[in-house]
């Protein structure tokens, strides 16, 4: 366990808040300027920053993050460059904020699981989320991550049966990422009515914090969810704001959602 | 003999690398398929539809003039082009749509490259009364307009995919994204022997009817098993279908032919077995065309069906363990083979299949006289006439134009 993630959730809880896990795409619009976006997320109140690393075939992502992936790849983003040029700079500017890499398993496999875990840890990464790596396929990779001190955060889906969700939660590292809607990433006007019930179930089984993600973009949604989760993940809405109106817009959106997370 | 391990692995390859949302659906599919396979009435129904509707068994045709012209092994053609809808793809779609009905699914989605799988899926959906949506790369929509019309005529919706290289890979991405959001009532009919477990197994099993028929037909036609079987490989469904029943027959050489595109040195090809490296694409670990950073590269082939940067995991395993040989044929070689087969045997093969003929000639000569070579004629070329005729038509044979 990296430890930083647990401490961060504990600090937010002590302040009477849910944690905001904020996502942006490294390399969008280019590597140096994405550092400014990540910094803005933290200035806006993000407790944990998810650093997206682009993949050519992002099957779990909707149009907003697909677009960001394409821009990042065009700008020359690679996992190696993100670890060399983005992560250290964000870590320097925001030393208290745990950084979590979010990418697809092929990108990590191409670098080598052990090499990635070691390098990521050295650069200041606390965890990783790989949305196309379900528990059945993750044993070997997770052992490497554990050895290096990088938390492999598991995902639970709306389609995950209760017993499986409990098993995933019991064995989790870092936090449990509960996918709110059956679908790809992207803003939704409405979240499923059974979401709070599913969050309660996972939370009861989980030794680590539980967050809800996918589809969340407003202060109001955050306010509803904070009763059932330790935090929320916001991605597409921040990526869109940063792309359309710059880091300041992403910062403002973080601040707004953070207001919703106050209990 | 099976090359499959209990967890959906073929040696190092295979597995189930998908978002958690899909895992329960894949488990449900695995269980439903196991139950259906154990139920004789399911197999009987598939067999009945393949006979009554698809026209199976397909013929094993002696290619007498090609044999004479090539001057080597005796060449025989397994005629999947004669299956209803004009390609082997229907073998799998009939099976999967029947399975989807058994599972109580209300709608069907599919991806397609050349459009043959899309047409075959739309056909099975029309036959069994299920709504059908087909995701197709926008570039493929342009170059396979005949098949786009056929799908629409059959009542399906064709959804052009504008992302990435606008080909099969991107169509598969979009189909998977759609499936994630509609997984409870929708069955995704994958057409290649690729994708997450259990798809490579299911597609192989439904396509293995080709090789099973061939065993019987070869015995009847020339009194023994073939000395070699050759098939084109994109994702690999026709290849695994014709080759799989012969894996245990050491005397039978199994040969796949990949898209050489503009040549292996050009970087524009679809040769994932030949030049790919280990990676995860579309839910399974296999050999893929990718750069050093794990980004999937765009494939190229004149034939939309071979224009794919991945390949089924079982084929990757068969190649890496040395049981299967791989060769490549370029766009130009495939085109030349198309005309050679047309004018020598009176058959217009699909451009995909033409790759198998291009290397079939070399193989027939290597084998020599007295040996038997079977070429899997995976599909007919009608869908490709626009692509081919745009490059001009060679002069007629034996008469003045």
TrEMBL record, chain A:
InterPro entries named in the record: Aldolase_TIM, RibuloseP-bd_barrel, Trp_synthase_alpha_AS, Trp_synthase_suA
Reaction it catalyzes: (1S,2R)-1-C-(indol-3-yl)glycerol 3-phosphate + L-serine = D-glyceraldehyde 3-phosphate + L-tryptophan + H2O
Known EC number: 4.2.1.20
Alphabetical keyword list: Amino-acid biosynthesis, Aromatic amino acid biosynthesis, Lyase, Tryptophan biosynthesis
Top-level EC class as recorded in UniProt: lyase
The keyword Amino-acid biosynthesis appears for this protein: yes
Gene Ontology cellular component list: cytosol
Record-linked PANTHER family: TRYPTOPHAN SYNTHASE ALPHA CHAIN, CHLOROPLASTIC, TRYPTOPHAN SYNTHASE, ALPHA CHAIN
Function: The alpha subunit is responsible for the aldol cleavage of indoleglycerol phosphate to indole and glyceraldehyde 3-phosphate.
Identification of the protein by name: Tryptophan synthase alpha chain
Protein source organism: Pyxidicoccus fallax
UniProtKB/TrEMBL annotation, chain B:
Catalytic activity: (1S,2R)-1-C-(indol-3-yl)glycerol 3-phosphate + L-serine = D-glyceraldehyde 3-phosphate + L-tryptophan + H2O
Modified residues (N6-(pyridoxal phosphate)lysine): 89
EC id: 4.2.1.20
Cofactor(s) of this protein: pyridoxal 5'-phosphate
NAD among keywords: no
Enzyme class: lyase
Alphabetical list of InterPro entries matching this protein: Trp_synth_b_CS, Trp_synth_beta, Trp_synth_beta/beta-like, TrpB-like_PALP, TrpB-like_PALP_sf
Any one Pfam family match given in the protein's UniProt record, by short name: PALP
Keyword RNA-binding: no
Keywords: Amino-acid biosynthesis, Aromatic amino acid biosynthesis, Lyase, Pyridoxal phosphate, Tryptophan biosynthesis
Gene Ontology CC terms, in alphabetical order: cytoplasm
PROSITE patterns per the UniProt record, alphabetical: TRP_SYNTHASE_BETA
A molecular function GO annotation: tryptophan synthase activity
Biochemical pathway: Amino-acid biosynthesis; L-tryptophan biosynthesis; L-tryptophan from chorismate: step 5/5
Domain Tryptophan synthase beta chain-like PALP: 55-379
Function: The beta subunit is responsible for the synthesis of L-tryptophan from indole and L-serine.
Stated family: Belongs to the TrpB family.
Subunit structure: Tetramer of two alpha and two beta chains.
The protein's name in its UniProt record: Tryptophan synthase beta chain
